[in-house]
Design brief:
It is a single chain. By secondary structure, this protein is an all-alpha fold. The chain is built from four helices and no strands.
Length: about 190
Amino acid sequence: MSENDQPEVDESEVESPEDDDTPDEPEGKSKTDEPELDERAKAKIAKANREAKNLRDRLKQLEPLAAKAKELEDANKSEIEKLAEDRDGHKSRADKAETEFLKLKVALEHAPDGASLAHIRAVAKRLSGASEDELAEDAAELYELVGANKSRVQRKPTEKMRGGDDPDEPVEETDPRKLAALISKGR
């Protein structure tokens, strides 16, 4: 029974004033009032019993609804927890991306002239610090220690073909068509 439920009282168990071991009635009340009081008490008890039964019936109807509401609330909590985990994951990825961007930005800003993209990325990867100022100091220090490649971008050297005997002589023709044309002219 819940605390709102009142115990059902059987009307036969209610003591009548006649069975009571109380002293004689007080003055001003007569024996004729007792049956009327007894009937009013029985009516009040019957009314209380009806109200209690109605409340128990309503409770039985509402219990499944309360269980369903609790179940939905628990499902919502797990959904909220999933969303919170997703949010935390996205937040950490965003923080990491912002940090990488800031490091690349600082490394690029402090890179000496002629530094290659690979060199800038290598310095950005090794930068440490919590603020942009700390990163800038670290970048300057790293570029100083490592030293940037100040020479031009290296590329494949061009070949200068020269004759075998005398390097100042022009290169002999090696194109087969031109050689064939020279042979036919010489005849």
